[in-house]
Amino acid sequence: MLRRLHFGGAATRSDLVAATGFNRSTVGSLVSDLATAGLVRERPGVVRGKGRPSNVVEPVPTSVHVLAFDVTPSSVGAARVGFGGYMLQVRRRLHTTTSHDVGNVVELIATLAREMDARAVPGSVCLGLVVSVPGSVHQPDGVVRRSPPLGWHEVPLADLLRTATGGRYPVTVGNDGDLGAVAEYLRGAARGEPDLLYVRGEVGVGGGVVVDGELLKGAGGYAGEVGHIVVKPNGRVCSCGARGCWEAEIGDAAFIRAVGRDPRESEIEDVVSDVAIGNRRAIAGVRKTGEWVGIGLASLVNVFNPRVVVLGGTLGALYPTMEPTLHAAFARALGPIREQALLLRSELAGDAQIVGAAEVAFADVLEDPLGTLETRRAEIADDPPERKLRHA
Ligand SMILES: [Zn+2]
């Protein structure tokens, strides 16, 4: 029932009876428990026809919140997300250097976390701090094993953040592709589709696979590194050191080169604006690259048989331009699989990683609302505000 409210927003008691299959008195007593815990509130419904209106139950965005971060090669995005998925506060800081020094990034996240948490309504319980990074993340310890776009190797990011924030929050670190896939499944273009493939094109190319409603993790938690499937044996050297990876053919640098620009001097935004003003060379370059997007997707759908393929980042932005060549190459996928797969642009675009990160931290409260709240409140009581200031 709480899931229905968190993802679907306000609902009447009658809607909740229909959605859960519980009877009215069970729904009534659950609503009352959740209202006592502060997670939901009730207001009188609108009278429709005869009879008493059904009360409307809605999530309380300021009851619990999450601090969500998206580290990319150019910036750190941050948001305080309230229950029900409401973005209560959004921040974005550009990196001041291109070195992505781990210490600077950790300090920036800790500062943003402090600022945003201080703005939360008193009494709102912070469920955790979750960070998305473009790299392979070992679970559950949150060590970034390798992130070519950031130049990081074996960075114990979760531990560093716990220390920098004085142990105030449960900290989770996730892969950007995995979090994007979760976000598109729960709140984006693939809402309600339990089998989906998400591919995000940026400097690097990440991805995530949801199978039967569960994120595919793999033996080490690294599954879904779609950017490093080999598509061109004698192709360019990839950021991972191998040759001919998909990322080397469809990452931002590949698009920039394909439109006749120099990746050292141009940004992907230049490609997007060239295309927007109808520059023929740019359109042809993007279409040529689109063929490689289709080639990789054909192999991936053959393996995973997704109902929906969601393209995010640069791939989502340029999808309408590369559609003809992408589809022609995608036709190599097996017929029965291809016919089932719907190619869509991300609906969440640049917010996908933040949204996915937030949902990771909301998962416990949706699973066990009262128990999770009790545990977090006890942890916070052990670390009162005076001590928090000393940590700061
Ligand atoms: Zn690679």
From TrEMBL:
InterPro entries the UniProt entry points to: ATPase_NBD (IPR043129), ROK (IPR000600), WH-like_DNA-bd_sf (IPR036388), WH_DNA-bd_sf (IPR036390)
UniProt-listed CDD domains: ASKHA_ATPase_ROK_BsXylR-like (cd24076)
Pfam families on file: ROK
Protein family per UniProt: Belongs to the ROK (NagC/XylR) family.
Protein name as it appears in the record: ROK family protein
